[in-house]
Amino acid sequence: MIKTPFHSAFKLQGKSFSSTEKLIDFSKEISSEVTDFLIDWFNKESFVEVKTSGSTGNPKIIQLQKVHMINSAKATGDYFNLPEKTTALLCMSPNYIAGKMMLVRALSLGWHLDIVEPTSHPIKNIEKQYDFSAMVPMQLYNSLADIHKIKKLIVGGGTISEDMMSKIQHIKTEVFATYGMTETITHIAVKKLNNFKSVIASETKQSNYTILPNIRISLDNRGCLIIDTPKISEEKVITNDLAELISSKEFKWLGRFDTIINSGGIKLIPEQIEEKLSAIIKNRFFVAGKRDNILGEKLILVIEGNEDNNILKQVKNLQTLSKYEILKEIYFLDKFIETETGKVNRTETLNRILKTSK
After folding, report:
1. Are 11-254 and 260-356 in the same CATH fold?
2. Domain 11-254, CATH class in plain words
3. Domain over 260-356 is classified CATH 3.90.1100.10
4. 227 CB neighbour count, 10 Å cutoff
5. In this predicted model, what pLDDT tens digit does every residue of 44-63 receive, in sequence order?
6. What letter would DSSP give residue 48?
7. Which of 13, 82, 261, 274 could form a disulfide with 289 if both were Cys (CB 3.0 to 4.6 A apart)?
8. Which helix (DSSP H) or strand (DSSP E) does residue 87 occupy?
9. Could you tell me how far CA 55 lies from the centroid of its own chain?
10. If we measure between CA atoms, which residue out of 279, 282, 263, 286 comes closest to residue 318?
11. How confident is the model over 189-223, as pLDDT tens digits?
């Protein structure tokens, strides 16, 4: 095992380490996942193998260069002004890129990192205050009563509902949504989510992402985002994410190219419809296309939980939906099927709904 250096200011669970061997040995007290990553990080290879989430195609194992991961860590530190001795909390699984990169940031930037079990209520029993952390939307929702313990928080791995947006507007914690994927070594763009100085600024900034330094963006002929990150990836990343370029540094995410619904010749973007529905639906939900002999595909809504007549009435009367966005069918399912990373597996969930509704 080579002596790959880490920052002299780095601390884990309040402890400093004089060698990688001592750090790895100590990590065994935390979790095998942390230990496995540190062994990979400090081995002789120039890369780390990670599993993609499927954002740019089917999930697969790819190799990320360690130098690119360090560059990504530095970009995050610079953008959010997080120097050495930043106190940070890792409450996501180190098995996936978001968790791995919290470790890389701490190791390379000299942060003081604490690690807790990646539960749905990660900071409930924590007494300390932290400068920085990362969560998925469900963790944020369940941590609102304790979120003051974190000064800056990035949220990824899912959309932020309108209900959540209203709940975080006046908290002291600075909350940012992130855009990125495994291939781009987590986020390449962020957007501020709360504490806006005016209603106009709120409406504008909520929908637009600002890219991090040393990143270039463009669109392909489908209208999907192309990401050029010379310091993070040797090749351009061609995504399936429909976007509108506001400027060379800013873009609006519109939805996924591979989820577009063609209903009677009208192309509907599920994510835009879901944003409207999030104003009235608090449970997890999604819209999708169901085969139809006349329309080709008809727009349906799938909601997690028991059938609720109040929700049905609200959806029917929602004025923000255009005439093409009116839901043709609404289904309820006790529990959604999830991916390994806790995201809703739309395809499998939809298959279950359609199979049981025949």
Report:
1. no
2. alpha beta
3. no
4. 24
5. 999 999 887 654 456 678 89
6. E
7. 261
8. strand 87-90
9. 11
10. 279
11. 999 999 876 554 445 445 699 999 889 999 999 99
